[in-house]
Design brief:
The protein has 134 residues and is of the alpha+beta class. The protein contains three helices and seven strands. Strands 3-4-5 form a three-stranded antiparallel sheet. A two-stranded antiparallel ribbon has the order 1-2. The longest helix has 16 residues. It is elongated and about 70 Å long. The termini are far apart.
Amino acid sequence: MDGRQVLYVDGKLLGPVPRLAICRNLFGELQDFLIMHCDNRWNVLGVGGAATLRESMQRSEHWYEGISQRWVRTHTTKRIAERWLRTQCAGEACSMCRKIPAEVDGMFSKGIVNICFLCIRQMHQSIVDSEINR
């Protein structure tokens, strides 16, 4: 692999990597595909992306000529992937709605309590509404 991509991580150019993974983004509005640049142990070093699987594969082929002959499908279902992700992020879930950080636009954490911005906005609106109705 010759790694002709230009990907910066923390302001530093990430050169060729030994492993790539293409994964569907499970959460958010985009539902795009993530191109994960990994080390030998599959630790993610940097992430790129594309709108479609085909575009992800084409970009990867451009960066690493010949990679398209080496792709391996995992046949992991969305349900299995979501369950795995929820298990990995269990300690980071919102204490109120149980959403994990990938599902929300931000999270406030203090000690063992995590509250997502959506729940904070809903609580604020409830307080405002209760003050108005007094």
